[in-house]
Amino acid sequence: MLLDSNIIIYASKEENSHLDSFLQHGDFCVSVISRIEVLGYHKLSVREVLWLESLFDSLSCLPLDEPVAGLAILLRQKQKISLADAIIAATALHHNLPLVTRNIADFQSIPNLQLIDPFKQ
Fold this sequence. Notes:
By secondary structure, the chain is α/β, with parallel strands linked by helices. It has one domain (2-105): 5'-nuclease (Rossmann fold), CATH 3.40.50. It has helices at 5-11, 19-24, 32-39, 46-58, 66-78, 83-94, 104-107, and strands at 2-3, 29-31, 60-62, 99-100, 115-116. Helix 1 (5-11) packs across helix 3 (32-39) and helix 5 (66-78) crosses helix 6 (83-94). It is globular. 26% of the residues are buried.
């Protein structure tokens, strides 16, 4: 399963500790764009950076390669979607992975993209 950036951010917050068991019982990976989005946030504390780096080190990080870029371009040509969301969705589609996200509405119009919201389980 591919984790959306928002799930990683939610998981880093103590009030969302219920995500710990969800994340411990699955085979997860991330898109490189999620790594850039999350670790690139300028207001992270040292503790948050260390926790997030540890999480990213434990996950496979899928690259932005030509097939993913091509799919992201097609998605953006067909609908209004942010660049990051297009890359994340294209990564999930290319690798035939369900996307774990809290923002179902951002992705629900993409054909053949399986979505999982761990907050509704």
